[in-house]
Amino acid sequence: MYRNRSSRSVGTSAPLLGALKLPADNPSVKHSLTIQHPGSRREQGFTLIELMVVIMMVAVITMIAVPSWRTTQVRNAVRTLVNDYTVSLYLARTEAVRRNTRVSICPSNDGANCTDSALEAGWMVIVGLPTDANPDILQDVLPRARVRSEFANNALANRSITFLPNGQPAPNFAGNTLRVCPTDADLGALSREVALNRTARINLSSPGACNIPAIP
Is residue 123 one of the residues assigned to a domain? Predict the structure, then answer.
């Protein structure tokens, strides 16, 4: 009435094992159970077409960005010289009144004395006259790059301005105009000018072209 379970299981184990297919014998199951280790992943690269597209994109961006960056650098160089020279003029006038003595602004390429040079080589604000040796220096401005300058009246004596204790220029000053241009001839439209009248009142302007004769 009762069957022996152990004998039944022994008798049927062989057919069951034969009917079942282990994952190792089934290619589809074997593929789905494949374990990929981090170090065994297949490497992928760029195709030739993808590489050419990237190179073309970089070339186009470079062609657009480089001229714009160059223009920005030159514009900043011109504006910086003009603004700094304007600040030096105000400093010279203010110090002449405050010290109750003569104060001059003049070109200087050595940072020690007034020299026969252009402003892009540097300039100074000094106590006294431009002809004084070893003057008391209030400000020493370093040389500038990518710009060139010239006064409309570019004689040596007219490149310097001396302010009197009353804040007015010396009687021999008849007014002048400082012209500042880029060294790059094709960017002459970025030029600026500082006009000084008889009382050294400052007027800034952008002429739209460089009014300094071309460098031979």
Answer: yes
210 part of a folded domain? no
Whole-prediction pTM: 0.71
Task: Write the single-letter amino acid at 64.
Answer: I
What is the side-by-side strand order in the sheet with 136-141?
A: 136-141, 123-127, 103-107, 161-163
- CATH number reported for the structural domain that contains residue 158 in this entry: 3.55.40.10
Q: Could you count the other beta carbons within 10 Å of the beta carbon of residue 52?
A: 11
What digits encode the pLDDT tens for the residues 31-49?
444 555 555 555 567 788 8
For residue range 188-207, what is the model confidence (pLDDT) as tens digits? 999 999 999 999 999 999 99
Residue numbers of the domain that contains 201: 66-205
Q: For residue 123, what is the DSSP state?
A: E
With contact defined as beta carbons under 8 Å apart, do 98 and 141 qualify? no
Q: How many domains would you assign to the chain?
A: 1
